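Our platform keeps sequence and structure together, in a single record for each protein. Such a record has a labelled line for the sequence and another for the backbone structure tokens. Nothing more is needed to write down the fold, since each code stands for a local backbone conformation. For reference, a complete record is included directly beneath this paragraph:
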Amino acid sequence: SRLMETAREMTRESLPIKCLEAVILGIYLTNGQPSVERFPISFKTHFSGNYFHHVVLGIYCNGRYGSLGMSRRSDLMDKPLTYRTLSDLIFEFEDSYKKYLHSVKKVKIGLYVPHEPHSFQPIEWKQLVLNVSKMMRTEVRKELEKFARDMRLKILKPSSAHSPMKERPRGKSLSPRRRQGSPQRRACRRDKS
């Protein structure tokens, strides 16, 4: 909810933004399009002894993947909705990074972001973390496609999405009842004086 307020302010002020703000802005601008599923994709790369982090908003619509984002490099941000699989999209990013002599070390994929603009559910930034520098492309493809299938089927749920809290009567404990065979706790502490 607070991030959507920030995005609204970004559109009013037209200030320069970085990749993270671009992801939030992408979420804000696609909120009214329920057929477009949005999820964060972040990359950790290595170049010339330094590590770099970058994030884009992955999008899925009508059986195709693409992305929205911001970067100094045109091929490291927006990708058209033309990729048949999530792994094709990720490998396209990896190939783009290679052009700039960056080696991709890790890829993190988050869960779908809800379309409710006033949601208090936090964004799940890293539901799947792949150490791609230590994996074969076939392994990466397999992991990505399993994850993408589960997301499309809405099997994966945010860890913060708990069932609604039930109002409990005063004085009642929420902990499960102790089994008969469980040892009973001491009623009082030992006096150490």
Observations:
- Confidence is low (pLDDT under 50) at residues 160-193.
